[in-house]
Amino acid sequence: MKRLGILTLMSCGLPLAVMAAPITGTFGGDGWATVSFTNLNFCPAGQTPNGGNLAGACAPGTGVINLAGGTGSFAAVTGAANQIKSISAANQPIGATSGPGLPLTNFIVFTPEAVPPGGPQISITLTRVLAGTFSSANCDPFGVVAAGQTCTPVGSAFNLQNQTTTTSSATFTLLGNAVDGVSGDTAPVQLVFSSQFTVPYQQLLQALLSNGGTGNYSGAYSVSESGVSAVPEPATLSLLGIGLLGIGFARRRVRR
């Protein structure tokens, strides 16, 4: 069974209603999403597609994160009504600090039930989608599969890796801020989304390459907060031929 899993850890302090305080703590949970070369759509409650190009793939909009509790500001986080918005390469350009959809306020919104009585509601503002860091040398969807291979398609946010010839993983990183509407209550967060598959990443890319490069793949997703570190200044990237999973290599493959 293909699995993309979810654990979110965040350095964030629940403020008092009348005083600024740091947002601190951790939370965890799970959810489902559909990814294409240019979009990442989080699934609404009850929608759990698992595989490539499914009729039940999730559409752009607002999905849910099923949370199971946390610490600090997130000690009361629980339930399935916490919201997360879809993102796209057109609205949140890879590596950029500005764009049509950046910053994306209320990227993640925690339900009022996840806040102690009298406390403000916490949300995450998305500020940047980081570019992937692997080479594109082994990104041929129809190439020879080998354990240890890595791939970041040209212009992509994703780092793909084959653990074995039949298993693989995918990760990408988002930067943002945890906020609660109270002046001074802001904490930077770095969210690392990760995925686990029981197929090599070449099969994932083949699914996305289908239907003229408009294919998609769905499964459960995971994300962890690993702290903010220095990142390089964003390069100037053309939106043509660039997406969340990158379509530059796909166009080259089609022309062969």
Explain this structure.
This protein has 256 residues and is mainly beta. The protein has one domain (27-255). It has helices at 201-213, 248-255, and strands at 27-35, 39-42, 51-52, 62-70, 79-85, 87-88, 104-109, 123-129, 150-151, 159-162, 168-179, 186-197, 217-225. The chain has an eight-stranded antiparallel β-barrel. The chain is globular and about 55 Å long. Residues 1-19 and 236-241 have low confidence and may be disordered.
Poorly predicted ranges = 1-19, 236-241
% residues in beta strands: 25-35%
SSE-based structural type: mainly beta
Question: Radius of gyration over alpha carbons?
Answer: 18 Å
Number of discrete domains: 1
Query: From the structure provided, what is the oligomeric state, counting identical versus distinct chains?
Result: single chain
The strands making up the biggest β-sheet line up spatially as 1-4-5-7-8-11-12-13
Q: What pattern of helices and strands is seen along the backbone?
A: EEEEEEEEEEEEHEH
Number of strands: 13
For the residues shown, what is the average pLDDT? 81
Secondary structure topology:
Blueprint: E1 27-35, E2 39-42, E3 51-52, E4 62-70, E5 79-85, E6 87-88, E7 104-109, E8 123-129, E9 150-151, E10 159-162, E11 168-179, E12 186-197, H1 201-213, E13 217-225, H2 248-255
Antiparallel strand pairs: 1-2, 1-4, 1-13, 2-6, 3-13, 4-5, 5-7, 7-8, 8-11, 9-10, 10-11, 11-12, 12-13
